[in-house]
Design goal:
The chain is of the alpha+beta class and 213 residues long. It has six helices and twelve strands. The chain has a five-stranded antiparallel beta sheet, with helices on one face. The chain has a five-stranded antiparallel beta sheet with strand order 5-6-7-8-9, covered by helices on one side.
Length: 213
């Protein structure tokens, strides 16, 4: 039986990710909650997996952190054996992990978005707690505030968008969710942009500036 701790109970979020013509952008708010209590205003929900890959988390923090540690270790081994990594390989491995936990009746209570850039270009995948894997060719989302954020994404997304344009749209989407979803918020946002040059974290100063536009 899964032990429920305070870490396991921290939930509520808005995470969004988008495929652009030159890369992929992943973003999330920074608020975590335990019921009606704000557990953290600076929770990290976008995590780097490799030099060209990152993942957003929603759901149980304890479960997500354990998966992040395991996936990072597995991808390091994969790099040693295969020399290069692919986003699809990481997504498939993660799907198998989740499916195995689900079948053992101890599911990992998470929703995950995995994005990266490799020889196939920008790649984006969404995964549910049962290991369901879906490749996304535009944008995807998860968390309690996603029902609000998706309206902004639907209205503003274009297939020809650059990562700079995608960044602005994702910030607008999370900003809308923070204003209407009580479980989304925090001090700022975590945002990663991944292109053929690798992964780059968007500076807080730049996020603040775009929030005021």
């Amino acid at each position: 039986m899964k032990v429920i701790s305070t870490e396991n109970m921290k939930t509520g979020t808005t995470t969004v990710a988008m495929v652009c013509k030159d890369g992929v952008v992943l973003a999330a708010d920074q608020k975590s909650t335990m019921g009606n209590l704000v557990a953290s205003k600076k929770a990290k929900k976008v995590h780097q997996i490799t030099d060209n890959m990152a993942m957003t988390i929603a759901g149980s923090v304890g479960d997500a952190q354990a998966l992040i540690r395991l996936l990072k270790a597995e991808m390091r081994l994969y790099e040693l054996q295969e020399k290069t990594t692919t986003t699809k390989a990481a997504a498939t491995l993660l799907s198998n992990m989740l499916r195995g936990a689900y079948k053992s009746f101890v599911p990992e209570m998470v929703q995950l978005l995995l994005g990266g850039y490799d020889s196939r270009g920008a790649q984006l995948f969404s995964l549910d707690a049962a290991g369901g894997l879906q490749e996304e060719d535009e944008y995807t989302f998860s968390g309690s505030g996603s029902v609000i954020a998706v309206g902004v994404l639907e209205d503003g997304y274009k297939t020809s968008m650059t990562t700079d344009e995608g960044l602005e749209l994702l910030i607008r989407a999370i900003k809308a969710a923070r204003e209407r979803d009580v479980f989304s918020g925090g001090k700022l946002m975590d945002i990663a942009i991944i292109t053929k040059k690798g992964l780059e974290w968007v500076a807080p100063e730049k996020i603040k500036k775009l929030l005021t536009c």
